[in-house]
């Protein structure tokens, strides 16, 4: 489970950002997690309280936005949800595709305290 290490690195990045921008708190952290990113949202939610326990983010709400894994069939160009279709094009049955979305993992938003702005 590499999610703990990922969250710890995110916490460090945000704490540096807070210092650089004289922010005392962050109310909400929004992470965008692609279905194909290899990061499991359930595990992120489980390890988040541990990772922030002694940090400046201890009172920060974690919000996860899941980006669906969408592929485009190389044979017929049809766009479809890869996981729901077992990576098989529902239009023509081909198994070769190009990923359009779902590999991303990023810090999407930080919602800061109004007093800090």
Structural summary, described in words:
- The protein has two helices and six strands; from the N terminus they run αβαβββββ.
- The protein is elongated.
- It is of the alpha+beta class.
- The protein starts with a helix and ends in a 5-residue tail after the last strand.
Overall 3D form: elongated
Give the rounded overall mean pLDDT.
95
CATH top level of the domain at 3-66 and 102-116 is Alpha Beta
- Alpha-carbon distance between the two ends: 36 Å
Radius of gyration: 18 Å
Q: Strand-residue fraction?
A: 25-35%
The helix tally amounts to 2
Question: Architecture of the domain at 3-66 and 102-116, CATH level 2?
Answer: 2-Layer Sandwich
Q: Could you give the order of strands across the largest sheet?
A: 2-1-6
Task: List the SSEs and their pairings.
Elements lengths: L2 H18 L5 E9 L6 H12 L8 E7 L2 E4 L5 E3 L15 E5 L3 E8 L5
Parallel strand pairs: 1-2
Antiparallel strand pairs: 1-6, 3-4, 3-5
TL;DR of this structure?
The protein has 117 residues and is an alpha+beta fold. It has two helices and six strands; from the N terminus they run αβαβββββ. α1 crosses α2 (41-52).
Looking at this protein, list some descriptive labels.
117 residues; alpha+beta; hypothetical protein PF0899 fold; 3-stranded mixed sheet; 3-stranded antiparallel sheet; 2 helices; 26% helix; 31% strand; elongated
